[in-house]
Structures
1.
Amino acid sequence: MSADTSPAIELRGASKTFRTPSGGLHTAVRGLDLTVGRGEFVAVVGPTGCGKSTTLTLVSGLEEPTEGEVLVAGAPVAGVGDKVGFVFQQDATFPWRTVLSNVMAGPRFRGVPKAEAKQKAREWLARVGLAAFEDRYPHQLSGGQRKRVALAATFVNDPEILLMDEPFSALDVQTRALMSDELLELWEGTGASVVFVTHDLEESIALADKVVVMTAGPATVKHIFDIDLPRPRKVESVRLEPRFIEIYREIWESLGEEVRITRERGAAHVA
Amino acid sequence: MSPEVISASAPVDTSKQPGRAESRARAARRRKAVVLVARVLLLVAVLGLWEALSRAKVIDPFNFSMPSKVWDQIYTWITHGTALGSLGEQIWVTLQEALLGWVIGVAAGVVFGIALGRIAFLADVLGPYIKVLNSIPRIVLAPIFVIWFGLGPSSKIASAVVLVFFPVFFNAFQGAREVDRNLVSNARILGASDRRVTLQVVIPSATSWIFTSLHVSFGFALIGAIVGEYIGATKGVGLLVAQSQGTFNAAGVYAAMVILAVVALVAEGLLTFAERRIFRWKATDSGH
């Protein structure tokens, strides 16, 4: 019962400290409180290297918090669960598998029979427009196509929670806008909760219901902005709306300060 | 305006392009031919010089022999057989020993390499011992194996195994360690168990590392078999070398070397062929 009313993701005072190779301690996130409702699309923005990605690895169960709690659907995270999908910043398609086999990997790992996995994989490949490419190997595809394979491979598992770590940052600007629109379309049918990490403020406003601004590292939540732009949205056109520009200005006031702090620290390091 | 400009310049371009492409192709072909001719000339020059110096007694023909005598020896072995039986049988015996040693060494190297690469505890416990074993010059183990396993093929197989194991082991270990962490994380998120990660992520990505070592290690397997036979055997190309040496037949030693070189080259070719088949998923430019 409580699982139905509890939020999709809850971080309570979560901190993560890593041991650096030189033996020192590096705190990536500190005292992080964040709640993501069911079906909500939350974008996390912050200066580069502030620990945004660490937040995702905590939610995914790939890493454990040093302090605090991470709850998914009301239950504490223990290891990698089967509710979570993760789209990585770098290419994470398996280069020795064909496109179809890559998309089948998730269901096969989870014990779905081969024929059923193949059918599901073909459906998702058709949805991302790669039906004709199922026999190719990843190295034969463009960067955008590989990203589509990654999206299909993630969505085919029907994740309740979708974690995305700057997924489109390696793509060129036009492909990026296209992929953002496709992501919104794919997501709108699933009802999944999304945490989308980016350092691109425009991208975050265009996609999300809520934009979370992080402080310069160690990261913690600085401010949360509600984005009241109507859906369905088209990334390219929503950018030109006056309300969008208003929101952008408002959030940048908050984010810009953190970016400046990070930059000054970087300069101090160089000097 | 602009379409006219394009159409005006286009015929110039198209008339230029094929001519240039053709001359470039011709130059490439000519370079290939020159390289081939130079290669053959170099071989002829070296063999001719050897033959001439030996015939003129500048170098001692008894010790150094000469290409024509080496060829005669190979020819005699092929047509009349060796003192040990037919030449084919000797090659087959050596090849069998080398192959068996190679397969066992590769299998053990891959299994241990992947296991230690994946299980940090094992690597920490066994690491120093493996380093110690690796620092032993393994050729000196061959006489010990002859004592342990006798004159039959098992002593040769054993010395091939110890030579093959280490390069394969270290490459498999390195390959398992250097797996892209993104791929491992991705597989775990997609629902793969530890066993699946090992079988379907670590092993496939370590294969290119393992294959590099396979090329070198087949040569090592041959060396192991030959040295084993040289020290004590009843059959094989190594014994042929030992016998030729014992009867002061320098041509025989060289002839055995030539035969071994041919065998090694053929094996290398087969391996390269297999590699191309297995690594279809790799971009062709990095596959070379």
Note: Chain B has eleven helices and no strands.
2.
Amino acid sequence: MREDFLAVVEKKRFLGREFLTWLLWRLEEEGGRLAIGGDVVELALGDRLVLQEQGERNAKLTLVDEGDMRSELGAGLRRGKLVDRARLSVTLQERTWQLTLDGGLLTYDSLRCPPLGDRDAGLADDPRALYENDLFLRLADVEHVVQLLDRLFAAFCELRASSRWETDTVPRLRSWVAELDSRMA
Amino acid sequence: MGFLSASSSIVRFDAKAPAHLDRAALCRAVNQRAFREHDEDGLPKAEAYGWVAIHDPLVVELETSDVFFQQYVMLGFRYDRRKAPAKLVRLERRRAEEARRREQGLERLGRAVRKEIKEEVEARLLLQALPSPQLFECAWNLDTGTLYFTGKARAPREAFAALFRDTCGVAPVPVIPYLAAERIGLTGATVDAVRAVERSSLVGGAAASGGAVAAVAGAAS
């Protein structure tokens, strides 16, 4: 069972990596404002990207840059790698989360949640109650950003399972990859 | 590293809560597996881990009010490793091997004896090694069956998953993309279709010439 599970993890790791690659493409194409359900969320790429190859070679390319990483991203994608991890900021209304999304495993690294906000003055004399209050607020923030990313992943899955993926999205992704690559020249 | 840290890494597990959770029994199970630095012989272990209270890692006798917070079970997880410095082990091992050779008048020691000396040296030095503690936290949302853990490193994550399974009777399964597909509101047919897909190549093909980019820019949906 455990070995089976690990085999599935490895074999299907590309799914999350395709999701992240698709997400970056959408950020480029749509300027970072994405409609998620009834919300409009602003997504921005941070200063760190990791691309990884699937399979035995598993070669990795890490990009760390405050500026434009498009040409290096294109070069990595052209060599058959996919985006494995990306530093992202997610803004909903006035609140911003920062995290490194690991597409291969769907984990949320170095997650920085929005500030907790004003504390209830009535809790000031009770440190334990204050701590629990903060913990609840923080967990709500964690679950909120996870749900937002889940909804994006759901949108990707809907598309990935449809015929539009092959007929429409893949050709456009290929064009994007080629364009990123051609900027190196 | 915890939920209230400035920055934390979150790993998500699927852990469906039983329909009727006996809170007192779970609290007893937590206390049975609370963090203990030493084993039954009172000796320090190379790896020691267990539950602590989420609000104070020094609290290892927990009440139900330390464990249950509305729809959540929240616990701290302490993971300690003791390790003698590798260079010191090598030097002490050499010293012990030379002493044994002189003692027994041998020119060379056999493999079995050398292995025995290595184990003895490691065990002796382990007694003097200081633990390197790591603190994590977990929150189990009983309503959604989602378990969040604030650590990604393999050894503590695996120790946590095993301890959680033994304590709660539920095996937590990491929510990898393949499994996540079935918990985000997709139809069964879509989940099956996603799980069956093979990787797409994003390289090559007629569209890869680069000339088509302008035509698609701004048109993604």
Note: Chain A has five helices and six strands.
